[in-house]
Amino acid sequence: MAADPGSHDATTPAAPVTWPGGYQAAATLGFDMDAEDVALTVDPESRHRLSAMSHQAYGPLTGVPRVLDLLERYEVRATFFCPGYTAERYPDLLRRVRDAGHEIAHHGYLHEAIAGMSRDQEAAVLDRGLEALDRVAGVRPVGYRAPMWETTYASAELLLDRGFAYDSSLMDSDLPYQLAERPGEGARSIVEIPVSWALDDWEQFAFVPELFGPGVIEDPAKSLAMWTAELTEAHRHGSCFTLTVHPFLSGRLGRLRALETLIQTMLTLPGLWLAPARDLAEHVRSLDLTPRVFPQPEIPA
Ligand code: ZN
Fold first, then answer.
1. How many domains, in total, are found in the chain?
2. What pLDDT does residue 64 have?
3. 54 alpha carbon – ligand 1 mean position (Å)
4. Which of 149, 201, 264, 281 has the fewest CB neighbours in a 10 Å radius?
5. What DSSP assignment string belongs to the chain?
6. Does residue 87 lie within any of the structural domains?
7. Measured over all CA atoms, what is the biggest interatomic distance in the chain, rounded to whole angstroms?
8. What are all long-range contacts of 8-14, with beta carbons under 8 Å and residues at least 24 apart?
9. Is 13 exposed, middle or buried (0-12, 13-18, 19+ CB in 10 A)?
10. Is residue 13 part of a domain?
């Protein structure tokens, strides 16, 4: 069962993954469509700050269309993790993402950090996000990425209940793995596509005074060098390169040029499977690996 801590060994690493069709490694581009919501969650009063709101709106108004053009030029399909609030505020944009053939996945409603929420509260946020994506774009997502990458020990069960096929919020591996399964009639399983703070543009570029960000704005050449190093090693090790990009940050011209260079590198690596996270998850689920939810640490008395 999915959340039975006693049946799992916390020291078991993820099993090697074999990739399909002669591929030797995988990569996936995830665009988190955070906009005003991520600011409103941090500080609801920020809605009165027009400039801060406009910084966030750069994503849907300028960044996402540019990202879509870039992906189209290279015929790359990606995953767009969309908060329900963004979907409702920019419905035409979400439908454009859908119509371009990209995957749309769940990313909370108001980009809520669910750590500390009750199980019922977490379930309500999941359902509200699902309703928004359905109402706006007729999408029933199979993928979930927790806002702020904050999940709980209840999350996998809640995702199984709602038919999700994968989560992409955990960091204990760089290989996808089976996160949980529910045997018996109507058997289901859910895969983890792990993430990493080092493969996220937030740490490089997020800067809004008195709201969030590390307080620095890095050179796109630095993130390109970091990400290229991780990409080439993931390729060499048969692993999975999972990049998280926010269009309100990386939609800026110089940063987008760096992303284009990274995509060009991806396309030159032999046997690299560049696909939406949904496709990777579907493959890993088919391998029928043993689930490896690691048990919640106990603090000895
Ligand atoms: Zn986000």
1. 1
2. 98
3. 17
4. 264
5. -TT-GGG--TTPPPPP-PPSTT--EEEEEEEE---HHHHHHH-GGGGG-HHHHHHHHHIIIIIHHHHHHHHHHTT---EEEE-HHHHHHSHHHHHHHHHTT-EEEE--SS----TT--HHHHHHHHHHHHHHHHHHH----SEE--GGG---TTHHHHHHHTT--EE----S-SS-EEEEEE-STT-EEEEE----GGGBTHHHH--BTTTBS-S----HHHHHHHHHHHHHHHHHTT-EEEEEE-HHHHTSHHHHHHHHHHHHHHHHSTTEEE--HHHHHHHHHHTTPPP-PPPPPP---
6. yes
7. 59
8. 8/291, 8/292, 8/293, 8/294, 8/295, 10/294, 10/295, 10/297, 12/292, 13/173, 14/172, 14/173, 14/175, 14/176, 14/177, 14/292
9. exposed
10. no
Residue 183 sits in a domain whose CATH number is 3.20.20.370
- What is the predicted pLDDT for the residue at 214? 66
User: In which residue ranges of the chain is pLDDT below 50?
Assistant: 1-8
The answer to whether residue 6 is domain-embedded is no
Q: How far is the CA of 226 from the centre of ligand 1 (A)?
A: 21
Q: How far is the CA of 203 from the centre of ligand 1 (A)?
A: 12
Q: Is residue 295 part of a domain?
A: no
Please tell me the distance from the alpha carbon of residue 152 to that of residue 142, in angstroms, as a whole number: 19
Measure 38 CA to ligand 1 centroid, in angstroms: 7
> What is the spatial distance between Cα 204 and Cα 62, in angstroms, rounded to a whole number?
19
From the CA of 22, how far away is ligand 1's center (Å)? 33
Residue whose tokens read 């109402």: 135
pLDDT reported for residue 10: 58
Cα 113 to averaged position of ligand 1 atoms, centre (Å): 10
Domain extent, residue 175, equals: 22-286
